Amino acid sequence: MNIQIFGKTKCFDTKKAQRWFKERNIKFQMIDLSQKGMSKGELDSVLHAVGGLDALIDDKSKGYASLAYLAYENDKYEKVLEDPLLMKTPVVRNGRQATVGYHPETWERWE
Known about the structure:
Strands 2-1-3-4 form a four-stranded mixed β-sheet. It has helices at 12-23, 40-50, 53-56, 64-67, 73-82, 104-110; strands at 3-7, 28-32, 91-94, 97-100. The chain is α+β, with helices and mostly antiparallel strands. The protein starts with a strand and ends with a helix. The mean pLDDT is 90. Helix content is 43%, strand content 16%.
């Protein structure tokens, strides 16, 4: 398994996800979205796995209002690449599989 956790350091669900993998001695790479975002390839892979941009965008984020003015999906996609804090966290990737939020029942199937 090649687990990546994209999250925010102050996010409770991100901490729970890290703890879940640590308790099972599964190595993972933590990427802090406030420091570094996803690459275009990573974002494409996650979007394909979770069913699109709407599943990934956090409507409670500070920058969410800026998305309301964007009419096209491509513009929203570019905005999420530019501002990764618009994403719900944690985003957990295992190759081409991904989840958004805390989903240990899905992660168990990855083992």
